[in-house]
User: What shape does this take?
Amino acid sequence: MTEIDEIKSRIDIVDLVSEAGVKLRRAGRNYTGFCPFHDNKKTPAFVVWPESGTWRCFGACNEGGDIFKFVMKREGIDFREALGKLAARAGIELKEYQRETPEQREAYDHLRDLLDDAVLFYRNHLVNNTDILTYLRQKRGLTDASIETFGLGYAPQGYDNALTFFTQRGYSQQDLLDAGLLTERDDGKRYDRFRHRIMIPIRDENGKMAGFGARIVDPNDIPKFLNSPETPVFSKGRLLYGLDRARKPIRAADQAVIVEGYLDVIALHQAGYENVVSPMGTALTEDQLRLLKRLTRRIVLALDPDTAGQKAVLRGLEAARSAMDKEGELAFDARGLLRNESRLQADLRVASIPDDLDPDEIVARDRDEWQRIIENAKPIVTHVMETLAAGQNLNDPKVKNQVAAQVLPLIDDLGNPLERDTYRQALARMLRVNESALMGAQPKGPVMRRKPRGVESTRSLETPVVAAVNPRLKIEDHCLRVLLRKPELLYQLDRKLEEFGLIPLTVEDFEYTDHQLLFGVLRLAVEQDETDHRQYLVSHLPDMVSAFANDLFAQKEAAEINDDRLLEDLLNRFLDLRRTHAMMNVNQLRFLQEDEQEQGGGNIKVYQEQALQFTRLLRNLDQAKHRISKRQT
Assistant: This one.
């Protein structure tokens, strides 16, 4: 039994959910209550299965999972943090997962203390500089309250102001280097990294100091923005400016908005739009999107039209960051965004800012205009199509061909067949050509399909906790073990499922969070083509499940089986797992309908519609099984 399994065996999910404020009542062997993740308190659509240690909401959330998923969703944290919390609750020491020794943690706290002191240092210099304060108040429109709230400061001119100040107060030069406040030349001389710049403290999502962003005062200085260097507490690819203050507003709005500039974030928060954050530099990373996905699936990129428009799009829609050399400019990589959208099952949209204005200028001239801009945000493919067509002569056959050549690969990257067909039709209408002509223009060869966005759970909810006596867990272990050793079978499985009119495999086909993490990395491995699938798997497995993955690798197969038999075996097993899940949900929905009928029946149609969806899925699964059995005979 792994530590993860042991944690599950020691924690009663009924107690865990009840302690989170959910009032549960027994319904047979299960429990029902009001979902803690949305506001509907009319119908007890939240179900807990104590035998399997799982839960599911049949209401607005339509999500479910195990104890880890519950804590992750409830507290807005990732698996690593949930693992630590639940391990402590279960009294289990996770030695192999501890990445920070007490000495390292003390050193990191020391750096953060230094950075907190630096906030005060730069703040004092701002208070005593009338010119910079006037710029922030009049040119940028910031109030004193906003300047104070976000801790803005000023790094004075000169090469040793911070160096002298902090060394006199007991900090060593190495401390200042480690915190990113000093820079060292080749000859060993050390001097202040930030000079004559507006200083913007950058905190992690929990509000702990991580580093600084620094904006020029003199327009002739370069670069325009200068961030702290990579340090033990500052990694720009894993931070989002303003997220510490935007977490609750993002959850309340069920939407996150990404803008380019730090001062744009402050101005928008000041105007009441507090669900806004900014990345640390030119590349929007998957880690940053994952931070947001904990809070919402709806993410809008509000980009300068010059960046998100022709300049980036016409550079091939791929690796836009490498083609740009302006510090602080958010690169628009449409293909990368679509891949992240698919992997994260998020809804990414693009809102273009008009008239070459910055967001702070938009809210300054008309506060409500910003809301209209965000509401009119468009899907990525639509945005690219319109951007490429703008100002072009679409009657010119060569222009038609150029536009189609850049848009069709994006459409092919979409995992949902309905979305692909819809966008092809839209492109054909825009170019005024027949859709068949577009199909003929596509490059030949296999197309990499990705899992559809927004697909709902297809997992079983009847799983005992202990692996040794758990049939479903054994099946999932077997399927993962085969796929980890033969990742290439995943695409074959996807194609077979699509032939039967079923969705490709997703993380939701697995019951437990640790299985989902492993499958998520597996999906990424087969979607990339830069390294060998197995090499990618080994190098990208999360530390917290690496031991579990090693256990799967270590289990011996009974005999070597050819790929065709393995594929057929996997297909049958996943169809069975989906059928078990669908049957469980149908039965539970019938119970909820009966319960709702006793309460007056006001929401019974919602349950009836969900039950009908699962019934249709059962029919499709049975037809698929029948077709497979006919082939075998």
The radius of gyration is 27 Å.
